[in-house]
Please model this.
Amino acid sequence: MRVILLEDVDKLGHAGDVVEVKNGFARNYLIPRGLAQPATRGLLRQVDQIRKAAEQRRARELGQAESIAAVLKDTVLEFRARAGENNRLYGSITKADIAEAIHEKTGIEIDRRNIQLDHPLRQLGEYQVPIRLMAGVVTQVVVRVANEAGEIPTLPEWEEAEGTAEEAVEASAQETSGEPEAHAAEETGDEEETASEAA
Model:
C-alpha cells in the first residue's frame, strides 16, 4: 500500500515521504495512529506543505530536546538501598525509578523507554546512564546507588573480578536465549519491588 507519512516514523521515513508498506501495517498501525494516510491524488498535492510543517516541528522539538539535554547533563541522582554480600541490592533500581527521580529533581518528565538501561541496577555503585531524547540528541545522568548509610563501599579486587565474571555469564546466557534483552529487563524491572527512593 502506498501511503504518505504525516509524522516521522523511525526506520521508515519523515513526514511528507511517500512510502510503500504492507496493507496490514498501514491499516492496523500507521493510519489508526495518525502517522500516515493513503497516498490519494489530493493528498499528494499537499506533500510539500506536510514536509514544511514537519521541518518546522522538528526544529522546535530539537530546540526543546537540546534544552532538556543541557539541564540533565551530568545530573546526579542519589538512591539509597539495602545491600547484602558483594554490595548486591535487595531489589533493584529500574528505569521507572530513574524517570521518577529525574522528575522529582528537575521537574522534567522522561519516558522510561528513552532511558538506555539494559537491565535494572542490582549493585551499589555509580553509573552513567544515557537518555535518548530524540534522534541525534542523547544526554546522560549519573545514578549513584549507595547503602542505607549513604556510602558506596569499595569491594576487594577479587570480589569485583568475580562480580564481573558473573555479569558476563548472565549477559551471554541472555544473548543465547534470543530474547530481546531490553524488553526482558523492562518486564523484570517493572515486576520487582523498588529497592529505594531517590534522595
